[in-house]
Write a structure and sequence with these properties.
204 residues, mainly alpha
Length: 204
């Protein structure tokens, strides 16, 4: 009798969960924060899944200053737009995006380098985290994994170099954002072909 009662309770619980989901009671709006239990369950589930599936391999990329700078450059070009730039205030997406994007320069990470590599390569479903392995090499992802793991405690020389490169990158982007109108007014036929500098800036 105990076994029958136990199995019945499990069946009722599963039916209730399924009904809750299928009847549309689950909240999916992005401008409303998740409940505490939802955040707890999903946080635990994601971390458990990553621990289970990411092989605990040693990082083949040694954390030398040169490699950390290379990983930092990759991070600035590919990750900082969402995860934050070292030395700058964290991005505040307010209540517009859930789950919140980890601001790595401020929060760091609990993951190992192997787990960071695995996440960067395969992404995390339904979070907006890309599967970067589709277009980046394992070497690049191991390199950025070494950087991310140490992002809160970078050697001073690495931090200084990356700050200089970031300033130069921002200056270059700012200068490219303004192209004199005359440069295209004199080349009207190029508008149609998409080779006008202003057109390229808009399209690309």
């Amino acid at each position: 009798m105990f076994l029958v009662g136990f199995l019945t309770a499990i069946a009722v619980l599963l039916a209730g969960v399924l009904g809750y989901l299928r009847l549309g009671f689950a909240e999916v709006r992005g401008d409303i924060g998740p409940t505490a239990w939802e955040s707890s369950v999903m946080y635990s589930a994601v971390h458990a899944s990553v621990r289970r599936r990411a092989p605990e391999l040693p990082n083949p990329i040694q954390p030398t200053d040169e490699n950390l700078i290379a990983g930092g450059k990759f991070y600035l070009n590919n990750c900082a737009g969402c995860h934050g730039t070292p030395g700058k205030p964290s991005k505040d997406y307010g209540d517009s995006l859930y789950p919140p994007i980890p601001q790595l320069p401020k929060a760091g990470t609990e993951y190992s380098e192997a787990q960071i590599f695995w996440i960067a390569k395969h992404g995390i479903r339904r979070t907006g985290m890309f599967s970067n392995g589709k277009w980046n090499s394992d070497e690049e992802l191991w390199t950025v994994a070494a950087f991310i793991k140490r992002i809160k405690e970078l050697p001073p020389s690495v931090r200084t170099t990356l700050e200089e490169k970031n300033r130069a990158r921002q200056t270059n982007n700012f200068s490219q954002a303004f192209v004199p109108r005359a440069s295209c007014d004199d080349l009207q036929p190029l508008w149609a072909t998409g080779t006008c500098p202003v057109t390229q800036l808009i399209v690309h």
